[in-house]
Amino acid sequence: MIIEGNAMERHPVEAGVLQGSSVSLILFAIYTSGLIKWVEEYVLEAEGPSCVNDLGWGATGSDVNHVVSILERCAAMSVAWASRRGLQFDTAMTVAALFTRKWGLRKHLRPN
Predict the structure, then answer these.
(1) H-helix or E-strand spanning residue 27
(2) Entry pTM
(3) Which of 24, 28, 56, 91 could pair with 17 in a Cys bridge, judged by C-beta atoms 3.0 to 4.6 Å apart?
(4) In this structure, how many other beta carbons lie within 10 angstroms of the beta carbon of residue 53?
């Protein structure tokens, strides 16, 4: 970590902070600060809007299978990025939302 130009020494951490506390939100934002830019460089069709304590991926496409493919690549890249840094995402918390203007074609919106 670099604070005001001063590099801090690395050392193991044997304690944690409570999820949802102000400190955990700040640490999450610091720790994942490079993730969105990194994934967007490899998955050009994606955009990474995020909040302080959450990550998200957005994509547009002509059909649901194409969008699902883009989002799956974002997820895989995110997990790979995190694993190299000793970070784990709770993939069971993954949520997908699909927005479409083609209401008459709902039966075709399920991915293969």
Answers:
(1) helix 22-31
(2) 0.63
(3) 24
(4) 13
